[in-house]
Amino acid sequence: MPRYIAFLRAINVGGHTVKMDHLRSLFESLGFKEVQTFIASGNVIFQSPSKSPQTLERKIEVHLRKALGYDVATFIRSDAELSRIAEYKPFKDSDGEGSSMYVAFLHFQPEKESQKKLMAFRSKINDFHVHQTEVYWFCLKKMTESDFSGAVLEKTLGMSATLRNSTTVRKLAENFIARERFPVPEACPPRKNRVVRRAI
């Protein structure tokens, strides 16, 4: 049965608090199997016979909206996709002391004009790289010390996104994905027919 990872936007911020056992039960109530969570930032691993990430995203978003009372944008990646994202290296020397790299998960690849707007935020502190449905943000300081943020990213691209530290992404892959099953290609195949969703 296919295994997926759901990255949930703002699941435990802005005054909202969801315990991980409750979150797991919400996913299990949708009929998903082998449901697990990883840290409290909204990362859910599960199995489903569905072959459509877009269908799963809509199904989860509707269910969480009804159960929690607020919108939770959901970004699905297969285990193969996550493995390749964890292996992808968009920047040289991105592991320097005091620096951080973040992965922004999107529903579809930004248009060229949106990418151009994002690159205008490049500076001595921040650098960006767009690869298909992910944006990689390299920051020489802590996120809280940068003048860039997830909110700025969403406004610039005109779409919803959720950010994860690259360390979290790598640990997810190491802990839950048998990466030897997925040889890392030069590029991941792009997703097609993604539904365009704008940030609210």
Describe this structure in words.
- With 200 residues, the chain is α+β, with helices and mostly antiparallel strands.
- 30% of the residues lie in helices and 22% in strands.
- It has 6 helices and 8 strands.
- The strands form 2 sheets. The protein has a 4-stranded antiparallel sheet with strand order 2-3-1-4.
- The N and C termini lie far apart (34 Å).
- Residues 179-190 and 192-200 have low confidence and may be disordered.
Topology:
Blueprint: E1 3-8, H1 20-28, E2 33-37, E3 43-47, H2 53-68, E4 74-78, H3 79-87, E5 100-105, H4 112-119, E6 126-131, E7 134-139, H5 150-157, E8 162-165, H6 166-176
Helix pairs in contact: 3-6
Short description:
The protein is α+β, with helices and mostly antiparallel strands. The chain is 30% helix and 22% strand.
User: How would you describe the shape?
Assistant: globular
Structural class by helix and strand composition: alpha+beta
Q: Tell me, rounded to a whole number, the average pLDDT.
A: 87
Oligomer: single chain
Portion of residues in helices? 25-40%
Spans where pLDDT lies below 50 across 5 or more residues: 179-190, 192-200
Task: Provide the gyration radius in Å.
Answer: 16 Å
What's the CATH topology label of the largest domain?
Alpha-Beta Plaits
Count of DSSP strands: 8
- Give the SSE order as H and E letters: EHEEHEHEHEEHEH
- Mind telling me the CATH class of the largest domain? Alpha Beta
